[in-house]
Design a protein that fits this description.
- The longest helix has 51 residues.
- The protein has 546 residues and is α+β, with helices and mostly antiparallel strands.
- The protein is built from 14 helices and 19 strands.
- Helix 4 runs parallel beside helix 5, helix 5 packs across helix 6 and helix 11 crosses helix 12.
- The protein folds into three domains: 135 residues, 2-Layer Sandwich (Beta-Lactamase); 223 residues, PPM-type phosphatase domain (Phosphatase 2c, domain 1), CATH 3.60.40; 140 residues, Histidine kinase-like ATPase, C-terminal domain (Heat Shock Protein 90), CATH 3.30.565.
Length: 546
């Protein structure tokens, strides 16, 4: 508790050179005070801290007026400090029943005792000064709080910027795989991250991690971890070795009480073979059919201690299987009753066969239904999902090779993006220019159908394209998630005369055009999806396509 005597001294009008310099010319005149106060010695420079545990604090809280320091019989370090400083009287400053400071008064210059009138005047002065001092304290506290809030807000902005700069800007395009990712920051920025790293022989490294703590420190540790993992992934194809080297580099520079949980996987998209090492992170889930299992791999978080070795777990992600990697912001979310979302709810939510962004959307909808949409998010949520196409088995059996697979938002204009990606995937096949242009037209028309009938222009409902090549054919499949209808499987043959008189719908040329652009076309649909399959033979034959 700091003595608050300087403003009080000015109120009393002391003009002692030892206590204050003479007022400058033109300044306000000092107030006139009674002669009885002329030899009072207010200790302007004395500040004695009173700890909360010191008995003097409780004594002053209940004292009715000035307290004679020399007569106090308390086992108190603060009392001894006041005596050593030459304080004779301590006048409590109380506002609304709370002790907010003290007025410390030294001996009278006349060496006489303080009279009853002196004490009464000091009590009156303290009663008038305490509210004003309390207001000043509150103003200062509010200013400090405002400055602290602005500092925290700026820190969160910097942390968010750091975090966003290190998240991948593009997801990998893997043949026969659908890859989707989601990052949802909480109000207080944490240290979640995910990354995809190109590895030798077409393999892909996948990292998901979470740094303890929040704000700029966590964001900086996240950025450092991200850089270390990428550097070590360029030197090794072993997830366990990558984590072990990263741990040894991070441990000496890890801030106190901080560490990083991280899972690193290396996937061979051609075979589905996956190798995983885990540094204290949540175990990934794999859904195949109705079965949901965990890929078990354990190890200490990064940055806790040097010399840690990480075990590796291997497996194969089969056709029609989903893999989910996630941070604990998902499973540790709470509802209004403080019940946690937990692993069991996540496992149950994964039993439904959704792919890519649809799976992520449904998981987030399930979470929001559990916590309530108005509840503030407690922690960052990071989700990464990989889905291997069910058609990969038949392609492999037929001796076909997957060239590319991707999904696009179902909005107008993306038919051209689909056409260009397919053309790029076929660039090395040496197709004649006229045949390639026919296939591109067919793909564009098929994508337009998927956008119109399946997505219905809704960018949140994507359509999917996969391209495979067999020894004899190029096969392109365009699949949509039909919302209220599907691409017609038996369209009318367009008749321009009938269209002009209104006997046929204005549209209907799409499938007719596709059929005459390629060597074969097939349309299939069920309650959930529609697929248009177009086939172009590699060896040109004399057909009706001219």
């Amino acid at each position: 508790m700091t003595a608050l005597s300087r403003p009080i001294r000015r109120l009393l009008g002391r003009n002692d050179a030892a206590l204050d310099s003479a007022p400058a010319s033109g300044s306000e005149p000092e107030p006139i005070v009674p002669e009885a106060w002329a030899d009072l010695e207010l200790s302007a420079s004395i500040a004695v801290e009173i700890p909360e545990s010191d008995p003097l604090l409780a004594y002053l809280q209940s004292a009715p007026g000035p307290v004679d320091v020399a007569r106090l019989e308390l086992d108190s370090p603060a009392v001894q400090g006041l005596r050593d400083a030459g304080v004779a009287l301590v006048v409590p400053l109380v506002s609304q029943g709370e002790l907010i400071g003290t007025l410390n008064v030294g001996p009278r210059l006349s060496e006489q005792e303080y009279s009853t009138d002196d004490r009464r005047l000091l009590t009156t002065l303290a009663a008038q000064a305490a509210p004003a001092i309390r207001v000043a304290q509150l103003v200062r506290e509010q200013a400090n709080e405002a400055a602290e809030k602005e500092r925290l807000a700026q820190e969160l902005r910097v942390a968010t910027l750091i975090q966003q700069q290190f998240l991948p800007r593009h997801l990998p395009q893997l043949p026969q795989w659908q890859v989707a990712a989601y990052y949802g920051p909480a109000r207080a920025v944490g240290g979640d991250f995910y990354d995809f790293v190109e590895m030798p022989d077409g393999r892909i490294g996948i990292a998901v991690g979470d740094v303890t703590d929040k704000g700029v420190p966590a964001a900086l540790v996240m950025a450092r971890t991200h850089s270390v993992l990428r550097a070590e992934a360029s030197r090794s194809t072993s997830p366990g070795e990558i984590l072990s080297r990263a741990n040894d580099l991070l441990e000496p520079e890890m801030p106190a009480k901080m560490f990083v949980t991280c899972l690193f996987a290396i996937l061979d998209p051609t075979t589905g073979h996956i190798v995983i090492a885990n540094a204290g992170h949540n175990l990934p889930f794999v859904r195949t059919g109705d079965e949901v299992t965990e890929i078990r791999a354990t190890g200490m978080p990064l940055g806790l201690m040097p010399g840690i070795r990480y075990e590796e777990t291997e497996g194969v992600i089969g056709p029609d299987s989903n893999v989910l990697l996630y941070s604990d912001g998902l499973i540790e979310a709470h509802d209004d009753n403080r019940e946690m979302f937990g692993f069991d709810r996540l496992r149950e939510a994964l039993r439904i066969d959704d792919a890519g962004s649809e799976l992520l959307d449904r998981l987030l909808e399930t979470l929001n239904a559990f916590t309530g949409t108005d509840r503030e998010q407690e922690d960052d949520i990071t989700l990464v999902t990989l889905r291997r196409s069910a058609g990969v088995a038949e392609h492999e059996a037929a001796g076909s090779t997957a060239l590319t697979a991707f999904s696009l938002p179902g909005i107008q204009g993306n038919e051209r993006e689909a056409m260009d990606r397919v053309a790029a995937a076929l660039a090395d096949l040496g197709l004649p220019e006229d045949r390639l242009e026919r296939l591109k037209t067919a793909v564009s028309e098929a994508a337009m159908n998927a956008i119109e009938y399946g997505s219905q222009g809704n960018e949140e409902v994507p359509f999917e394209v996969d391209v495979t090549v067999t020894p004899t054919d190029v096969v392109v499949r365009v699949t949509d998630r039909a919302m209220s209808g599907a691409v017609p499987t038996d369209p009318e043959t367009p008749d321009i005369e009938r269209k002009l008189v209104g006997e046929q719908k204005p549209r209907g040329w799409g499938l007719f055009l596709i059929e005459h652009m390629v060597d074969a076309m097939d349309v299939s649909a069920d309650e959930e999806a529609g697929t248009q399959t177009v086939t172009l033979r590699l060896a040109r034959e004399e057909t009706n396509d001219g």
